[in-house]
């Protein structure tokens, strides 16, 4: 765990007048150490043993505070639940259509695409989002192990 990253996030919250509660700290720490892109429910389930009185609403409220402070971004893909990403550096996601796994990957920024879109449409471009879909290695390996009769 990058303690510096957690400390910087805590200081950023405090500088905006956000009071650090033990639950808030635990949620932030979980987000910063999570390799996945957890839902609010994932975070709640991971922390309910430590904080039996914490509700899912508490998790959602804190995620909103973190989002407003620029510490996390909310990812919405299709009909699935919102997922939260504490990696605020410019990056993209590849999503498995079978299991829903989301993996970060780096790619040069698509600034030229934004510039061309603005020029062609007259829009003032604010940001972009690129999503790539496929099947993760685990799902591919699982399918190759299934008998042909079970495949749809």
UniProtKB/TrEMBL annotation:
The keyword Cell inner membrane does not apply. It comes from the Bacteria. Pfam families: FUR (PF01475). Keywords: DNA-binding, Repressor, Transcription, Transcription regulation, Zinc. InterPro entries: FUR, Fur_C, WH-like_DNA-bd_sf, WH_DNA-bd_sf. Belongs to the Fur family. This is Fur family peroxide stress response transcriptional regulator. It comes from Desmospora profundinema.
């Amino acid at each position: 765990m990058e303690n510096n990253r957690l400390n910087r996030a805590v200081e950023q919250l405090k500088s905006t007048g956000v009071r650090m509660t033990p639950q808030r700290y635990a949620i932030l720490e979980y987000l910063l150490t999570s390799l996945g892109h957890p839902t609010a429910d994932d975070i709640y389930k991971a922390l309910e043993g430590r904080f039996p009185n914490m509700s899912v609403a508490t998790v959602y409220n804190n995620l909103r505070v973190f989002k407003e402070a620029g510490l996390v971004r909310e990812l919405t893909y299709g009909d699935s639940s919102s997922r939260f990403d504490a990696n605020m550096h410019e990056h993209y996601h590849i999503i498995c259509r079978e299991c829903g796994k989301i993996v970060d990957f780096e790619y040069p920024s698509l600034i030229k695409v934004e510039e061309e879109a603005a020029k062609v449409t007259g829009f003032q471009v604010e940001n972009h989002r690129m999503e790539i879909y496929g099947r993760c290695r685990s799902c591919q390996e699982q399918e190759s192990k299934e008998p042909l009769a079970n495949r749809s």
